[in-house]
Amino acid sequence: MNTSDIITIARTEVLRDTVTTYSWSDDTLLTYLISAEKEACRRSYLIFDKETPSDSIGKSLCSISVVAGASSYFISNKILKICDVILTSTKLPLYHTTTTWLDEFYTDWKIAEGLPAYYFYDNNKLTVVPKPEDSDTLELEIYRLPLVDVNLVGHTVIGSSNITFTASTNRISMATGDFKNKGFKMGQKITISGTTNNNGTFNMVEVYPTYIVVYESLTTESNTSAVLFTDSTPEINEEYHLGLIDWVCHLAYLKHDSQTLDPTKSKDHLQLFELKFGSYVSASIERKRKYYPTNMRLRPKEMGY
Fold first, then answer.
1. 14-17 contacts, C-beta under 8 A, 24 or more apart
2. 158 and 227 Cβ atoms separated by less than 8 Å
3. Burial zone of 57 (CB within 10 Å; 0-12 exposed, 13-18 middle, 19+ buried)
4. 260 neighbors 23 (Cβ within 8 angstroms)
5. pLDDT by residue (tens digit) across 55-99?
6. For 218, how many CA atoms within 13 A lie in the half-sphere containing its CB?
7. Nearest CA-CA partner of 48 in 212, 236, 185
8. % helix, strand, coil for the chain, step of 5
9. Hey, is 71 helix, strand or coil?
């Protein structure tokens, strides 16, 4: 479902806000919907990623360039949980640990150098131990927040002599840029214009940072210009889209106005949202979930697993 459809359903079918002078503007409901998708991801880890190198501002997501002699690296604040960290040179996973464990069992870890075998992360910074002696790459498998906030006008990529269409693979490639960070998503339709032979509407079956695979046939064109447009839609799977409406309505009924404030309805929609996506996760618990390994014994009770 695209963004405008979700907002229309929330407004007309649930909030019953059908008078021409709306009680909640489109921009207000859009803000609530952006919050809803992020909240659902925080509670249920809905977006798994092992392909996107970095976010839209260049912070590392699934790929970190390791520099010899440097042990700590800043990572994107969109990362909710790191599932695995793999050293490219060895294809072996690093062991998730804590500074407390290292202090007890690897007492010289702060000065040790060698092939990284452990990692810990906190406050959007990942540290490998021991300090690497050679340059390498870390491959991360993560759960994260949406890369791009939904909007009401869709997402557009304007390519200038950097778009290639390949007929044999139905692939649309981009020499520079990032389709995922522009809001393009598997399952969406893409409308293409400005080309010689590939104008039209296509269905995206795969989306990667530098290329898209479509279902329909393409005509080969190399290093051409094109305008690629897709509707805005939440990045989480479509089966969860309608569930976001309950968070939208939860916030909508908290608006302090005689026509909108209704704490009882707000609480009812919050409960419905929690049935679908789970209970509230505080900032403190979210941080502990990142810091403590999943398989660690004696994890804090309030973490729930």
1. 14/245, 14/249, 15/249, 15/252
2. yes
3. exposed
4. yes
5. 999 999 999 999 999 999 999 999 999 999 999 999 999 999 999
6. 26
7. 236
8. 25, 30, 45
9. coil
Residues 288, 68 contacting (CB under 8 angstroms): no
User: In the numeric block, which tokens belong to residue 236?
Assistant: 């989480």
Q: Find all residues with CB under 8 Å of 269, minimum gap 6, and list them.
A: 246, 247, 249, 250, 253
Q: Model's pTM, two decimal places?
A: 0.90
Closest to 23 (Cα-Cα) out of 14, 34, 245: 14
Query: Which H or E run contains 126?
Result: strand 125-129
Q: Sign of torsion, CA 164 167 168 171?
A: positive
| Spatial separation of the C-alpha atoms in residues 84 and 107, rounded to whole Å | 24
H/E/C letters for each residue in 170-222? CEEEECCCCCHHHCCCCCCEEEEECCCCCCEEEEEEEECCCEEEECCCCCCEE
* Residue 232 and residue 147 in contact, taking contact as beta carbons nearer than 8 Å: no
Question: What is d(CA 206, CA 39) in angstroms, rounded to the nearest whole number?
Answer: 26
Amino acid at 298: L
Q: Is the pLDDT of residue 305 over 60?
A: no
Local structure of residue 43 (DSSP, 8 states): H
Q: Are 45 and 80 in contact (CB under 8 A)?
A: yes
What percent of the chain is predicted at pLDDT more than 70?
Answer: 96
Give residue for tokens 């996506």: 277
